[in-house]
Amino acid sequence: MDDSRAALTARVTALQRELVMSQMRPQSESLFSSGITVAQLHTLLYVHAVPGRPTAEVAEAVGMKPNIATGVVQRLAARGWLARTPDAHDGRVRRLALTPEGAAFVESVAGAAEQQFVDHLDVLSEDQLAQLADMLATIAASIRPGD
Questions:
Q1: Cβ-contact 106, 97 below 8 angstroms
Q2: Among 22, 38, 96, 124, which residue's CB has the most CB atoms within a 10 Å radius?
């Protein structure tokens, strides 16, 4: 990587970190009062983004061993935040979805920070917003599983 690209990458990284830090307060209030673990939060966020996936896939996606994920899923289900339904083709497989209570919790954590980000986008012109959307789509496409 040449010096110019390295400097730009460092600038983008610093700006991204600043955006993340600005969203911590709205997220923290719900998280601290909930008492959930990081593994539970990652599970909820993944299931929110990709509902209906089996436990093993969720475990892989969030970097947990399947036996650990099973315990995490059981605790979230016992709390009423996660629903497990048998797969139509394989009764041993459980597909995961958020319950209304689980969705409300995820919204309380992510929703406030997301709205704050949307509010910050008001400083961009429509052309700048379109450019940002295209750039983020390019980055997202490079990190999607199977791409």
A1: no
A2: 96
Burial-class residue 117 by CB neighbours within 10 Å (0-12, 13-18, 19+).
Answer: middle
Please determine, for residue 137, whether its predicted confidence score (pLDDT) is greater than 70. yes
How far from 121 is each of 17, 44, 116, 125, 128, CA to CA, in Å? Answer: 16, 26, 9, 9, 10
The first and second tokens of residue 121, run together, are: 């986008």
Contacts of 61 (CB under 8 A, 6+ apart): 46, 50, 53, 145
State both tokens at 28: 């923290």
Token pair of 36, please? 């959930």
Helix (H) or strand (E) holding 131: helix 126-143
Give CA–CA dist 73/83, Å, rounded: 9
The reported pTM is: 0.70
% pLDDT > 70, the chain: 94
